[in-house]
Amino acid sequence: MSFETLRLALLVLHFVGLAALIGPALLRSVASWTVVPIMLTGAAIQVATGNGLIAANQLQGMHVIEAKMIIKLALALASLVLLIVAAVRLRKARKRGKHLEARAAERAAAGIGGLALVTAVIWT
Question: Which segments cross the bilayer (predicted)?
């Protein structure tokens, strides 16, 4: 498998992670269930594939805008940490038999994901 094939596969998975991060938050406005686990998976995929894409691009000698990658990584990590904290809080609340909403964390993580998307598209 060539580096280009690997890069394209990582790009597809990166978009899947983005969809899993932002999509559930959009559906949440009509749903009554929590979407944190789906979004958490999407955020983890974003971090992993984003780093893989950077490595694949550098291995092929392609130009990488390092400042852009640092900002995108920071945004992806912020989203991931926010969702990890929300997931832990939800799990603890369930163990105590309480109902807890994580809508603020869901919206914030989706907003950060959207900001990362805009950064990726506009900063070339």
Answer: 69-88, 108-123
Read off the pLDDT of each residue in 58-64 and give the average, rounded to a whole number: 92
Number of CB atoms found within 10 A of residue 18's CB: 22
pLDDT band at 30 (very low <50, low <70, confident <90, very high): low
Note down the domain range covering 112. Answer: 3-122
Greatest Cα pair distance, the chain, in angstroms, is: 54
Radius of gyration of the chain (CA): 16
Token pair 């603890």: residue: 92
Distance CA 122, CA 124 (A): 6
* Long-range contacts of the stretch 99-104 (C-beta < 8 A, 24+): 101/34, 102/34, 102/36, 103/28
Does pLDDT of 2 surpass 90?
Answer: no
What is the C-alpha separation between 109 and 94, in angstroms, rounded?
21
Closest CA to 46 of 25, 6, 75: 75
In total, how many domains does the chain have? 1
